[in-house]
Predict the 3D structure of the following.
Amino acid sequence: MTDWLQRTELLIGADGLHKLKQANVLVVGMGGVGSFAAEFLCRAGIGRMTIVDGDRVDPSNKNRQIVALDSTVDVHKADVMSQRMEDINPDIQLTAIKEFLTPDLMMELVTTQFDWVLDCIDSLQPKLYFLGAAVTNGVKVASSMGAGGRIDPQKIRIAPIFETDCCRFAYKVRKGLRRKGFGKANIIAVYSEELVNRESLQLTDGSNFKRSYYGTISYIPALFGINMASIVIRDLMQ
């Protein structure tokens, strides 16, 4: 038993720990949700992981993203996360992709080589392409809905995407999936039943498919990410 995983093994047993070490997980998006999801998967002992993000750390990320420090501003988020996770688990088999995924690359990447894929993308159209690739290729997928504009951690839920409620972003995802012919897709979502604070909305120039964003508090995206990691870990141990 590796000493740093001693307490994990006490909880889930040697067999559970072995299952996590043998698993291969893909996490797309190293922002407020994905960075926490990836780190907690790593801390649980996941043996192989691929992380994807084409963005660099911006000072505005510091209020909610584990990658964001004064010392990491303008560094690729994927590089920051790679260094963190390899410092946690030097034995992890880690691949970092420092680019924004195109639809074609998603279809090529999201395959059954992965036991689970996590969608932590915050723009609608890339999210729909990613989820479509996962469903088409028969890969287990969990998807994060909108974490912005909310402050109540007790309203966060886990449910199949077509059973989500109260989240406008989830509504748009469901609508987009139906239009693409994925109306019966088995996608697990992390979402909040708290109504979004519309006064916190900020419009953008529309670059990278992102037309707007909501204000965020430090802990809500992190809790979304922790819930994403828990979906994978609890399933793998079955």
